[in-house]
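quick one
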Amino acid sequence: MNGKGKYTYASGDIHDGEFKDDKINGKGKHTYASGDVYDGEYKDDKKNGKGKFTFANGDVYEGEWKDDKMNGKIKHTSLLDMAQEQHFLGEIDSARVMLKRYLDVKVKQGHSQCQSCHQFCAQDEIMAECSVCKVARYCNTAHSIEAWHNGRFCHKVMCPFLLHWRKTNEGKDNVEPSSIAILNDFFESLDVA
Ligand SMILES: [Zn+2]
Ligand SMILES: [Zn+2]
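structure w/ zinc ion:
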């Protein structure tokens, strides 16, 4: 394939952009089967150059990429920050819906992003997993230790909610945000912290 085009992969991914010698080269928009979207520059099938990665849950990472990895300064728009802001403004329903989307994607997708440094790992890379929630993944155990205390949404805060969310969702397709008490507990635990 050469030139501009749209290609659907066996995985369900769709790429709309520039191809050269059957590889993605140049600008393109890649929509993953999971609902995640990367819109930006490529070289030889890998993210290289400027680009914006939007997770299905609304988390956005924008900046420079090199061989599929984030490189240098990346702007991160966090759905958790947005949810907390909505909660603070008294938009409780909106806050709950955002938090549910955040947790859904974390729990249901086999994501390949380190929850400490936020780096993207290759699909075949072996990642460390939190042994308690079995949801959070890391580049290595050093990053999992750092994540436990670092930041407002450190894993010490997030772990019980991810665990609860995984168990609540097991065997269920969809859980109504209005029916789940832990969504309120989440915001209350942050207010205290
Ligand atoms: Zn990491
Ligand atoms: Zn955990």
